[in-house]
Amino acid sequence: MEFKIYFKSYYHRLPRLLLFSFITLIFLGSSCKDKAAHAPTENIETNKKPISFYENGKPKGYNLFQNIEGKEALVGYKEVHENGTVKIKGAFSSEGRRNGLWESFYVDGKPWSTGEYINGVETGENKTWYPNGKLRYQGMMKDGKPIGEWFFWDENGIKSKKTY
Predict the structure, then answer these.
(1) Fewer C-beta within 10 Å: the chain N or C terminus?
(2) Strands 48-53 and 59-68
(3) 155 three-class SS
(4) 3-class DSSP state for residue 50?
């Protein structure tokens, strides 16, 4: 009897498990195409060069470089708030375009927005949060345009939907 219940439960979860595995494999396969765009953060941080500064002289924005095949390659960008917390971060493709996940944060470190890029074009999931941490909107992008169902929440948590 217990075996039947476990098997039935597993059988119902199998399609989701297979879909998740398939999506993971596609993501991992595509992420290996461009070494510069997905360089490990530990290596990126050791080669940061400030490109903008606050009025007090503190660095504001950094280009992130990594030694790839004997050449210094631009692989990412990081911007910080005046208090030192991360404001924006993300990777670049070998052509110098946004690539992969780009994230931005409020001064207190809470997430403000996330967006996925492929060679400079926003493609993938997009999310934005209110300063209190509640979701503001969420949807998918393709070729720089919103697609499918997008969900929006007002500051009171009331949800609405728009289809593109």
Answers:
(1) N
(2) antiparallel
(3) coil
(4) strand
